[in-house]
Structure formats: structure tokens, C-alpha cells
Design brief:
By secondary structure, the protein is an all-alpha fold. Helix content is about 75%, strand content about 0%. α2 packs parallel to α4, α11 (about 240-270) packs parallel to α13 and α18 (about 440-460) packs antiparallel against α19. The protein is globular, with a radius of gyration of 28 Å.
């Protein structure tokens, strides 16, 4: 049984990155799973004091795996705890530690061998997958932009459609930022190898950067189309007329960009000439669409001067797409294919841990939320282990096992998956009991195990509850095929599963919980400051000259990463109990305002990238920008104090009483924004005045939300 479970988990894990990172992670998983089985068998023979100590050790290790790797840590934590509790029950080994350990090692080694044996024969380079993920995330982002809000709900009822599309775009932008950063880290370690590796990785690094460049240019176009009036005096219907007219024409552009992203992802993985030809065809079609949309924008600029800015942005997007073709071609080129794979495989040095730096987190200080989770998990697992020991429940190990599967670091994630996990586990347990009660021939039972494993692997990312059903069938058939099945055993297992799930859900709410309402204000304040720094760096480049350097790129990345963190926390806040979601509307408004501000900064970034000259910002425009930056800095300071009417966040230095604000703290900055005299837009640099007007409107709107 242990051999089958170890082989299944090693063979199905999808480890990304170069060969050394893959091999090291798989080897680490094998050691952890084998060690968990050995620890469980040893604890079974040592009595309940040793069992409790080993259970606490497994809980601490679960937190360690989550800290070391957010991608693979949760999976390793659940699998290691699963085999530990099965081993702790003693049914599968009868106290024989060495045979159980060797069986696990042999099964896991076979699963690892299956993974490694396929590497030379698989069509894709192991590093190409991470670059393809960036382009797939790019396609998802443009997919959210391909339907104009008016097509969903015509004005004036388009506000819900805009809000819905804004949420989808925020999620897609966050996924793209994460994908590009992950690929960048993995490719950086791969580029430090041999000449063959540097050659392959260098092209992949460049193609990954092109995903970010195309996303920035396309996002700038979408931002200008979705922007509100750039000045308070502008009439919304009149000022947005050209945007509404152009949005319908631009919809095929975003659809074409989404299709291009998928085609590039497929071409970079498959390296097939036919897929490269598809990319070239899509690029030709996009050239025609860009010309049509550009002509439409040029015609509208006669009546709406702001539409001239759209012409510049479309031209910049076209330049990026023209350069993209060569980047894809050299990445897909197969001339060096004969040398690439052998060079990669010869660089497989499993004793070097340097490639793992792109995959694991080596920071010594864990997240306080994770520390609370480990303490909560340790107490619950120790109690569950003690319960099935002291109550002498033959199948009581399902109690702590279910706690491990259901309990998550935050309440929202625990609640979101609790119903799916409980439903799948209970239904799978009952169905497996029925199969065992039928006393099927061994060959049929083995076939049922194989089918269950296949369906679990296929459905785990498509329908989680159904996947849990099949993995439960797999585990029960392996564990109890040799025993006598009765209704009492099935009910005992089901009762332990239900009890474990309910205990985990209750503990997430009552036992040292972490509520997002306390964590979110500092995160939003950090995102506001990151956007402020990004905007300040852009203003400096546009006022005094200079191009894009590493400092500016890092400021952009920091702002986008901070937005990802805020929206992740906001989603968790929506999962908290209703009485713990105070001022959730304010949090959502500030999060969306911060993201829109970052997008507006991207409009400035496009002009820096096109080679700004000293004086691209007039002195009046620079003064206007400084007013906005000061207001943004003050807003971030106020948000860090906590939301009005809620308790101050821990560590804010203002106690735990409800947040109150001195009168008129932001009134000076609000008045400065209200009386801001924007430079005229009917000038060659009118795009800057219009974009500054949008930024001022966003900051003023967030101040109004905070003071409401």
C-alpha cells in the first residue's frame, strides 16, 4: 500500500523548472514521504506518548513545507501527513518499520524513475513550460478585455458590467505578474549553466520579457478606453463618446492578442513549424486590425484631441508585435535541437542546490499567519490522535487525517474547501465500502484502484470535490481490501471524517483565528506607497529625461506585486464570516482604485519606453504630479491606521480601539486636488495632462471613500 501511494504521488506531481530543480524536488518529496511512513511505524510501536510527539512533529513539518514552497509545500504537507497517519494506525505494517520504509522507498523511487525516464522523450523543454505559462496568463488577461462593457449592459446600466470586468482583469493581471516572475526566477538559475543552457535560456528569458512588454502596451490601450473623464468639469457622456465608439472597434484587437498569446505558448512548448506559422499568421492579422483601429482613432482625434493619445499607444503596440515575431522564431528554432537535450541532461547535478533558489523560500522568518496555523494544527492533530488511541477506534485515524486535509491557514480557504472535501471524502468512503462489501475479485479491485487514481489526477484541477471522491476510493481500497467490511466500519469511518471536518472548520473560526480585516489595511497602504514610488520614478524620468533602467522596472514590479497581494487578501476577506467583514466595500474600492492608479502609471511608462527627452513634462505638469504624489502619500498613511469605525490593525501603534481620525487630516490634500489647475490638453504633450487628470481623480475618489 505504501509503495502504491508513494509511486502515485511522485509520478503525478507537476514540477516545473530545469532538470536539476525537478530532480531535487522529487528527491526531497521521496525522502519526506519515506520518513513520514517510518516515523508513523515507529510511533505505533512506541505507544501513545511517542505517537503524540510524532504527531506534533508532523504538524510542525507541515508548516515548514508550506513556508519553504508555496507551490509544492501544501501538497507535500498533506501527503506526508496522510501516509504518517495510515502508518500510525499500524494496519498496513503490523509494527514492521523496515519493510514499510523500504516499500515506500521502492514505490516512490519507481514514480521518480517514471518522471525522469520521460524527460528525453517529451516534446517540450522543461523550461519552456514556465514561459508558456506567462503567455497563457497574457491570453487570459486580453480575454477579459475583449468584450466592451457596453456589449454586456448598455449605459447607464453598465456599472455592474464594468465592476465585473474590473475584478476579472485584476485577477488576470495578478496571475500574469506571478507567472512572469516565476519564469524569470527559474530562467535566471538555468542561465548560469553550460554554454548550451545559456543559449537556450537566453532566448527563453527574452521571450518571457516580451510577454510583459506586450501586456504593458495592450493594458495601456485598455486603460485609456476604460478611463473616466480626465477632469471634473468634463461631461461623462461627451468625454467618453470617443471611447465608446473606439471600444467596439478595439474588441477584435484584444481577441486577436488573446489568440496570439495561446499560439505563442503552444509554439514555444511544441517547437513545431506549423505552430510557428500560426503565430506569424496571427501577427499579420493583428497588423491589419491595428491599422484599422488606428485609423478610427485618428479620425476621432479631430473632434476629441484625447483620442490622439490612443494613436500613439496603438503605434507602440504595433512596434512590440513586430519585434515579437523574431523573438518567437529564434526560441522555436530547431537547428540546435540535437545538442540542446544532451547538454541539459549532462548538467543534471543533483547535489547542487543552487537551482532550488528559484523554487524554495529560504527566509528564516515565517509568516505570523503560518505560525498560528501550525500551532492550531498541532493542537488539533494531537487531540485527534489521542482520541483514536484512548477511545480505541480502529478507524479513528480518519479523524486527524480529515483535519489535515480540511484545515487551511485562514478561515476563508478552510470554509471554501471544507464542503467539497467533506462531501467527496464521505461519498468516496461509502462507495469504497460498498465495493469492498461486494468482495470483488483481486483483479477487479486492482482495476478500480487504477481507474480511481487516473480520474483523481484528471479531475483535481477541474472539479475538486469529484477528485476528492476518487482519491478517497483509492485510499480506502488500498487500506482495507484485506479486512472484513461491515456497516459499522463504514459508519465509523464516515463519522470520524465528518467530525474531523467540523472540528477543522470550527477551529479555523474560534482557535486563534486570523481575520483579513486586520491584515488588509497595511497591505493596501503598502500598495498605495508602491504605486506612489512607481509614479514618482516615472515623473522624474519624464521631467528630467532618462530611459528605462532596472530601478524603474523594479518599481513597476513592486507596484504590481503589491496589488496582487491586496487582491489575494481581499478575496480571503470575502470568505470570512459576515460579522468579520467590516468595511469590505471600502476595502474593495481602495484596492480597485490602487490598481487603476497603477494602470494609469503604465500610460506614462509607455512614453518613457519610447525614449522621452528632457522636458517631456512641462514645469506645470511636474508641479501637478507633485500635488498628486503628496496626496497619495498622505492617503497611504491614513489607510495604514486602519479603516474608520474598525479596530486598529495589530502593530499599527494606535491601540485596539476603533479607529477615529483627527478632523480635516486629508482635507488639505482633498482641497488641493479639487482646485488643481491642469495644464491644457490641446498641446503636443496633452496626453500627460489628461493622464495626470485621471490620476488626480482616482486619488481624490479614494480620499472621498475613506472619509465617507
Amino acid at each position: 500500500m505504501f509503495a502504491a501511494m508513494a509511486a502515485q504521488n511522485l509520478a503525478m506531481v507537476d514540477v516545473k523548472g530545469d532538470y536539476r530543480a525537478r530532480f531535487c524536488l522529487l528527491l526531497a518529496m521521496l525522502v519526506i514521504i519515506t520518513g513520514s511512513v517510518a516515523l508513523g511505524a515507529f510511533a505505533w510501536s512506541g505507544g501513545w506518548p511517542v505517537a503524540l510527539a510524532a504527531t506534533v512533529l508532523i504538524a510542525i513539518a507541515s508548516g515548514l513545507w508550506r513556508h519553504v514552497s508555496s507551490d509544492y509545500g501544501p501538497t507535500i504537507a498533506v501527503v506526508s501527513a496522510l501516509v504518517f497517519f495510515i502508518s500510525l494506525a499500524g494496519e498496513a505494517h503490523g509494527g514492521r518499520v523496515l519493510p514499510a520504509t523500504l516499500a515506500t522507498l521502492a514505490g516512490g523511487g519507481f514514480g521518480l524513475l517514471l518522471q525522469v525516464a520521460l524527460w528525453p522523450w517529451r516534446a517540450q523543454h522543461p523550461l519552456r513550460r514556465v514561459v508558456a505559462d506567462s503567455w497563457l496568463a497574457l491570453a487570459d488577461l486580453f480575454e477579459t478585455m475583449s468584450t466592451p462593457p457596453d456589449a454586456v449592459a448598455p449605459p447607464p446600466a453598465d456599472a455592474p458590467a464594468r465592476a465585473r470586468r474590473a475584478r476579472q482583469a485584476a485577477d488576470a493581471e495578478g496571475a500574469l505578474r506571478v507567472a512572469v516572475d516565476n519564469a524569470d526566477r527559474m530562467l535566471a538559475t538555468a542561465a548560469a549553466g553550460s554554454a548550451g543552457r545559456r543559449h537556450v535560456a537566453g532566448h527563453l528569458v527574452e521571450l518571457n520579457l516580451w510577454a510583459a512588454r506586450v501586456a504593458m502596451a495592450g493594458n495601456a490601450v485598455a486603460t485609456l478606453l476604460d478611463s473616466p473623464p480626465s477632469s471634473p468639469s468634463a461631461s461623462p457622456p461627451a468625454s467618453a463618446a470617443w471611447q465608446r465608439q473606439l471600444a467596439a472597434s478595439a474588441a477584435p484587437l484584444f481577441t486577436g492578442l488573446a489568440n496570439l498569446g495561446r499560439s505563442v505558448a503552444l509554439a514555444v512548448v511544441s517547437r513545431q513549424p506549423g505552430h510557428l506559422a500560426t503565430c506569424e499568421i496571427r501577427l499579420r492579422r493583428l497588423e491589419g486590425i491595428l491599422q484599422a483601429v488606428g485609423a478610427r482613432a485618428h479620425a476621432l482625434s479631430a473632434r476629441h484631441p484625447e483620442a490622439a493619445h490612443m494613436t500613439d499607444l496603438l503605434r507602440a503596440l504595433g512596434q512590440r508585435l513586430s519585434a515579437l515575431e523574431e523573438a518567437v522564431r529564434v526560441t522555436v528554432e530547431r537547428a540546435g535541437e540535437r545538442a540542446a537535450f544532451p547538454l541539459e541532461l549532462l548538467d543534471l547535478k543533483t547535489w547542487q542546490l543552487r537551482p532550488l533558489a528559484a523554487t524554495i523560500n529560504l527566509k528564516p522568518r515565517p509568516d505570523p499567519v503560518l505560525v498560528r496555523f501550525v500551532l492550531r494544527l498541532a493542537v488539533l492533530l494531537a487531540a485527534g490522535t489521542g482520541a483514536f488511541y484512548w477511545l480505541d477506534l480502529p478507524h479513528g485515524y480518519w479523524l486527524p487525517l480529515t483535519i489535515v486535509v480540511v484545515l487551511q491557514p485562514d478561515y476563508g480557504a478552510t470554509r471554501a474547501r471544507a464542503a467539497q472535501r467533506l462531501a467527496g471524502t464521505v461519498a468516496g468512503s461509502l462507495f469504497a465500502s460498498f465495493l469492498l462489501w461486494l468482495r470483488l475479485p483481486p483483479g477487479v479491485e486492482l482495476g478500480a484502484v487504477a481507474v480511481s487514481v487516473f480520474l483523481f489526477c484528471y479531475l483535481v484541477r477541474r472539479h475538486y470535490a469529484v477528485a476528492v471522491f476518487f482519491v478517497t476510493v483509492f485510499v480506502v481500497l488500498l487500506m482495507e481490501a484485506s479486512g472484513v467490511q461491515t456497516a459499522g466500519i463504514a459508519l465509523e469511518r464516515t463519522g470520524a471524517t465528518l467530525a474531523g471536518g467540523l472540528i477543522a472548520l470550527g477551529a479555523a473560526m474560534l482557535f486563534w483565528p486570523v481575520w483579513e480585516r486586520d491584515r488588509l489595511p497595511p497591505l493596501i497602504a503598502g500598495a498605495l506607497r508602491a504605486s506612489r514610488d512607481y509614479l514618482a520614478a516615472l515623473v522624474d524620468r519624464l521631467a528630467r529625461g532618462g530611459g528605462v533602467d532596472n530601478a524603474l522596472v523594479q518599481a513597476k514590479r513592486a507596484a504590481e506585486t503589491a496589488n496582487v497581494t491586496v487582491f489575494t487578501s481581499l478575496r480571503r476577506l470575502y470568505g470570512d464570516p459576515r460579522n468579520r467583514r467590516e468595511r469590505v466595500e471600502l476595502a474593495a474600492a481602495l484596492a480597485n482604485g490602487t490598481q487603476r492608479l497603477t494602470r494609469i502609471a503604465t500610460l506614462f511608462m509607455m512614453h518613457v519606453r519610447s525614449g522621452s527627452e528632457p522636458g517631456a513634462f512641462s514645469p506645470a505638469q511636474e508641479q501637478t504630479a507633485q500635488v498628486i504624489l503628496r496626496a497619495l502619500d498622505a492617503l497611504a498613511g491614513e489607510v495604514a491606521r486602519g479603516f474608520p469605525g474598525t479596530k486598529n490593525p495589530p502593530g499599527s501603534g494606535h491601540g485596539s480601539s476603533p479607529t477615529t481620525r483627527p478632523p480635516n487630516l486629508l482635507a488639505v490634500h482633498a482641497l488641493a486636488l479639487d482646485t488643481l489647475q491642469l495644464p491644457p490638453e490641446q498641446t503636443p504633450d496633452g496626453w500627460a495632462s489628461a493622464s495626470l487628470g485621471r490620476a488626480a481623480a482616482e486619488v481624490r475618489g479614494m480620499i472621498a471613500e475613506l472619509d465617507a
